[in-house]
Write a structure and sequence with these properties.
By secondary structure, this protein is an alpha/beta fold. The protein has 3 helices and 8 strands. 15% of the residues lie in helices and 25% in strands. The chain is globular, with a radius of gyration of 15 Å.
Length: 142
């Protein structure tokens, strides 16, 4: 049975790394190291409970330490509660390496008009963190 749903909340910043021109910073310096997640066996019902919080925009699914995919709030529509969340997950174009230059990551977020990137290890699978912009796009939540 899935554990209680949890997901990253873009407006919930415990600290921030401001967006600057400092070229020495990497994604690792600004990422949230322990993002909230949902297990890969979560259901649409779990997602609905999670998305009851209007601040939650998406859910990161994991299988142990392995990143499985992201489910966007809009994906659940009128689907039955028992539908596997994994069926709605996507994983292409949502990941970034922790060694990536932070200015490059910001440029990508701007180019894609996105708020978050999932940080995965060199194996391309292990979840290391979440890079998420604050609501004003002036800093990264930690």
């Amino acid at each position: 049975m899935p554990t209680e749903p949890q997901a990253p909340d873009a407006t919930e910043c415990n600290g921030e790394v401001p967006v600057t021109e400092d070229s020495s910073l990497t994604v690792r310096d600004a990422m949230r190291r322990h993002p909230k997640t949902l297990p890969s066996d979560a259901t649409v019902g779990d997602l609905r409970r999670l998305f009851d919080n209007p601040k939650v925009l998406d859910a990161v699914l994991v299988d142990g330490a392995a990143f499985v995919g992201v489910v966007d709030r809009d994906a659940i529509g009128g689907l039955p509660n028992e539908t596997p969340a994994r069926d709605l997950a996507h994983s292409s174009d949502v990941t970034i390496a922790p060694e990536t230059d932070l200015n490059e990551a910001m440029a990508r977020l701007d180019r894609e008009d996105s708020w978050r990137l999932v940080v995965v290890g060199s194996d391309g699978v292990t979840l290391e963190g979440l890079l998420c912009l604050n609501t004003t796009r002036t800093g990264f939540c930690r």
